[in-house]
Structures are given as structure tokens and as C-alpha cells.
Amino acid sequence: MSNKTIVLNIDGMTCSGCSSHIEKDLNGTDGIISSTVNHETGEGKFVFNANKISNQDVINAVNNVGNYSVVDNVKKETTVVSNSENTTIKDSSSDKSDYDLIIIGGGSAAFSAAIKAESLGLTTLMVNGGLDFGGTCVNVGCVPSKNLIRAAETAYHATHSNFKGIKPKGVDIDFKQIIKDKKELVSALQQQKYMDVVSDFENLTMLKGWAEFVDNKTILVDEKDKYTATNIVIATGATTNIPNIEGLNEVGYLTNVSLFDLEEQPKSLTIMGAGYIGLEIAQAYSRLAVKVRIIEFTDRPLRSETEDITDVLVAQYENEGIEVLPNFRAFKFEKEGDNTIIHCKCPDGTTTQLIEKGKILVATGTKPNTSKLGLENIDINLTKRGHIIVNEKMETNISNIYAAGDVTNTPPFVYTAATEGSTAVSSAFTEENKTVDYSSLPWVVFTDPQIAGAGIDEVEAEKLGISFEVSKLDLIHVPRALAAQDTRGFIKLIRNTETDKLIGARVIAPEGGELIQQLSMAIKFGITVKDLAESFYPYLTMGEGIKLAAITFGKDVSKLSCCAS
After folding, report:
1. Which helix (H) or strand (E) segment is 200 a member of?
2. pLDDT-above-90 percentage for the chain
3. Side-chain half-sphere CA neighbours of 76 within 13 A
């Protein structure tokens, strides 16, 4: 069997509805394995069975959809021939149709489930549609965003210094090269950390296609081929939640999926949403010489965190020239020449018009990929927002169906998804009684300064009725921060006053994410604040700030000598 992938330039697309129209029609074409079309870049990526159809057949199929046409013939072409009796990437014309396990999805949770299944000797079918194998994190999420953040940080430090005696000379940014390098990294890691990992699996079949439930043990792929399994794991992830705002589809917009592949540097960028995705992108692109504005409909960015944290971040963003507009609600978009006019309701109830000469980025949260799974055929329980409800064993309300990753009502992180995928398979096929506990879960927002947390904060502690006390240490009291001439932020610890155990921590600091794992472990293993305060910490490390924050519960650290307790 020979699979071929081609990339085509497609003319005539104006909105996401256009790309969806082409994808739907092409996915219904015999021989097409998957279609991914992006209206912002004007490109379509098509994987097809070269034994059934040709390049020209695909081009003709696109040209026959609405008022769209392929220009410049084939932009890129790759062929994969697979004769392996072991792991196989193939189209849906499989001889085998019954498996021990079916995994729907192809991201971190899905691969973790597949790895666990292989260790148990289970025959497994992985069915993946949409994003390439590897899912959000490696393709359009964690990996590309953190790569761009580090590139932007390099540019920023070439123009800014904390030391009076060091005067930066500026920076020359090759935006297109940065994006090309990012693409190479994504491609390499997608191969090394996903495809290569399962390349020698004896019991895994990987299928590109869209799965829909027929019943609790049967799926239909691409509306034609049925597969059955004893147990099924749903790991379809999540995607950007596009708000229903008048004119938004017509003016065109970007999401993280399309933005990260855009090699042409935007003149400017208006970001809809000030959650962690919007905030990370805003600072990275601003530092890469893009004028950035953020519109947030709530009263401040990162609304889930306390105000003292967001105050530090907003001050930094304003200092970098990033415009943050809280309590602004966009209600209409329209084009005026090359400009996009954004009609907004202001905090005082009046309305205004914002002019965007560059691009619009939608970062208004995510929604689970459940709408096309045929879940109505199995009556699975969902939250109001459509997430699959699971317990600590990743079990759903249906005895043989499990779920893992961003599609569920669990914390949306790649590392939790991996644990959940393995746990789901363990629950389905073993007596291990493995569960997932999020009580000490560490997390990081990769802004500068970074925001990190573990456990609960003071607001959550009060809601739970826990007797607590808060220690907050500004970085001006941390010797490492003073030596680096960078005292932005603080370290905050929350302790249970009845047990002295650490129950939560929040950090906003340069590289603050590097501190949070120690605090997460302290919460997990019941370490007391007294233990933290009395432990040894190397002098002039940021870690020493944890000791000082612990001491602050009982002493004024400003009156202590260096290294004193």
C-alpha cells in the first residue's frame, strides 16, 4: 500500500466555513484518507491512497467544490509505502476489524494509551482525524509556542538590560526563518517522540480517519468501515472555541493552529482573550516586533488567578507596549478596505470602534472535540460544555468506554493527558486500581515573568472552609533576584494552620516555573512549612526564595542576615 501526502494552494477561501466545506467534501471522496485545509494560509493538505487515486484526482476534487480552485499545481508531495506486518499507518481498507482496544485520537493521551496497551499485548487500533499524529502539543501547542517564546525572549534581551553598565545594541529579526526553524523542530519531535516510539509495536494499527460511534463497542470510520473492540478510549482532545460574534467568520481570523505557521510577519495583532494561550502569544509576538493588543471581556487577564498576580503581569505587558483592554466585549466585526473594524462595548457601557490593520487572533478558550463522535448513539454523560465526564480511573458512565486528555472534565495539560491515557487502559484491562490525583498538580504559564502554581490558593482554601494562612514574599527580598537586578514578582505559600502542612503555592517570577515542582512535591507528601524553612538551600538560587517565604510565616525576613534562619 502507498500513501501520498500533497499540499495544494487553494484560491477562493474567505473564512473557516470555506475550509470546512472543502474538508467535508474531500473526506467523502473515495481514496482520500484525511484533509486539513487552512483558509488563512490558503493551503490544503491531503493524504490519500495512491493505489486508488492520483494527484490530479485530488486537484479535480478540490476544483469541483464550490468556487474554489487549485493554483500552482502541487506545492509539496510526500509518499509513504508501508508493508510492515507490525505497526502500520494506513487507510481505512483494513482486513482486520475486531480489536481488544480502540483508541480514538492521536495525541498525548492516545499514544500513552497505545504504549500501555502494547505492554499488555493488546491488539489496538488508533483512529486519528484532524491534526497529525502527535496532537495539539507537538503540532500546534506546547512545542511551537515555547519555541517562539524562547526566540522572542532572545530578541527582547538583545534590546533590554537590567544593568546600567550594559547597553544593548539592538536585534535583527528574521521572522520567516524563526517560523521555518519552528516547523523543523515540530516535524522532528513529532517523528522522534511519537511515530518512532511506536514504530516497532507488534499489535498496533494506526488509521487516519474520522470515527463515529455506532454502539458502545463499534465505530464507523469515514462513514464506511466498521471496527469493533472490547474496550474503547476516547482521546480526541480539544480545539479553539470560536465565539458567535457577528461578522467574525467573514473578516477572517487566526487561531494558534494557523498563526504558528504564518511565515509573513503580521503588521499587528488583536488577540481575543486573555487566558494563558492569548497571554503567551501576545508577549512572544510583541517581542518579535508585532504590535499587539489584547481584548478581554472579564475585568482582568488570567481571571482564574488572584488579582495580585495579574497586576504584576499587566504592569509588565504595559511596560512592553502591549495594550490590554479588560471589560471590553466585541460584538461585531466588519471589513473596511484592508482594515478590520472591531465594534466593542466598553467598561462604562458605551461602544467604540477599534481598527486592526493586521490580523485577528481568537484565543477565547477551548472546546472538547466531541461533536462529531456520534456520542448520542451511546448516551455518554457530558458536562454542560461538552466534556466527557470521567472519574479518577478515567471511567465514563458506560462500562467499556474510557476517556482521557482535553476531551474530558480534567485539567487540560499534556502531562495529565499522558497519565490519563495510561490509566484508562490499566482500568480497562487490569486489576491495578490505578487512579489520578490532581491535588498537588503543578502548572506553569510561560509569560515573562512566569506564573506557576500547585495545590489551592487562598480563595479556594476559604471556599473549602480550611483554616489557612498566607505568606507572600516579594522578590526584592530574594538575594538571587537582587543579584540579577530583576525583582519582578513574588512567592506565595498557603499553609494549613492546624497541621502546618503546605496546601498551595503560587509563584510569579522570572523562570518561576522552575520552582513549582519542589512545592508540588511538598504538597503531595505532606511536608510542613517548618520543614521547608529548616532545610538547606544553596545561596543565590531562586530556590532559596522558598525557604525565605516559609520563614516569613513567623519572621520578618528583611531583618535577617544572608542565609540566616
Report:
1. none
2. 80
3. 8
